[in-house]
Amino acid sequence: MLGFLSARQAGLEDPLRLRRAESTRRVLGLELNKDRDVERIHCSGVNTLDIEPVEGRYMLSGGSDGVIVLYDLENSSRQPYYTCKAVCSVGRSHPDVHKYSVETVQWYPHDTGMFTSSSFDKTLKVWDTNTLQIADVFNFEETVYSHHMSPVATKHCLVAVGTRGPKVQLCDLKSGSCSHILQGHRQEILAVSWSPRYEYILATASADSRAKLWDVRRASGCLITLDQHNGKKSQAAESANTAHNGKVNGLCFTSDGLHLLTVGTDNRMRLWNSSNGENTLELYSGSRDCNILAWVPSLCESVPDDDDETSTRSQLNPAFEDAWSSSDEEG
Question: Where do the WD repeat units fall (predicted)?
């Protein structure tokens, strides 16, 4: 690292290369915090976690035992060693507890008064945080694998739901019903994620080896099917228009919404340009057991200047340019 710093000081090293080297060094040096622990409530594995985006203080956890726990992460004792306590939980004795494994929990993006959970019991439940009572419940014919609410939506209250079936279901919190479905995948939907940049753009991952980008206002099908070969012919015809050589287990957008990260059972993670669907050819080693991704913006991203923003917009898929017009706001 000292060599990098000396070369950068002399103007011989690209600052981006130095930034990547430092972020890599920090990530490889990560270890569990020995000073902080979390109170153990679950009797078996924890499948999902979510920290509320308003204060960053409260965390939800969902377990394979069907239990949901709400933790307070603040160190109220002011001691160097402390345990994050559980504020409350939806335990096995709760009348509305999930019957089977909880696969996803998510806070309502705009306040902590509500959160959602989905489970192998084929339900998506909307909870009132203050009373821990169900405000609404959506029932499905298939096992639910994943759900997600848009972090930036102002014109809709849709929850995208991935199930054992090949159709992506969109549930409207305002009407309390499933508004419509997205068809295009051939097998179960393993992960869904809304763009943090555009409120109508949704990414989906499936066991059919494909990842797709959708504008949920369009009835003509998906915007882009991600292709690991970027349209080039490959020797294996079965790998055409696939994101991975195996199931696509998980995906997440970068915090600026310009890129999408996917992980598959082929032990690979790939980074995609979300505006045109191109594989950036940034390839990372993954794990067959990995299905949850998170992006750390402070380590991995630089703030684009005005020229970068202009360049990005000029490379957008034409459908994206239409989608972000001001016509919706005028109507």
Answer: 39-81, 95-137, 182-217, 241-282
Q: CA Rg, the chain, in Å?
A: 21
| H-assigned helices in the chain | 2-9, 15-28, 297-300, 306-314, 318-323, 327-330
- Measured in whole angstroms, the distance separating CA 320 from the mean position of its chain's CA atoms is 20
Nearest one of 54, 70, 150 to 102, comparing CA atoms: 70
Q: What is the pLDDT of residue 185?
A: 95
Non-local (6+) Cβ contacts of 271 within 8 A are: 259, 260, 261, 279, 280, 282, 284
Cα 190 to Cα 292: distance, rounded to the nearest angstrom: 11
Contact yes or no for 282/230 (Cβ under 8 A): no
When mean pLDDT is compared across 23-32, 99-108, 288-297, the lowest value belongs to: 288-297
**Structure-model confidence comparison of residues 185 and 7, the more confident one:** 185
Do 42 and 22 touch, CB atoms closer than 8 A?
A: no
Q: In 3-state terms, the chain is what percent helix, strand and coil (to 5)?
A: 15, 35, 50
Please answer whether residues 247 and 190 qualify as being in contact, where contact means their C-beta atoms are separated by less than 8 angstroms: yes
Name the band, by pLDDT with cuts 50, 70 and 90, for residue 302: very low
Percentage of the chain beyond pLDDT 90 is: 62
Which pLDDT tens digit goes with each residue over 232-281?
765 556 667 899 999 999 999 998 999 999 999 998 899 999 999 999 88
**CA quadruple 291, 297, 301, 305: dihedral positive or negative?**
positive
Burial environment of residue 90 by CB neighbours within 10 A (0 to 12, 13 to 18, 19 or more) = buried
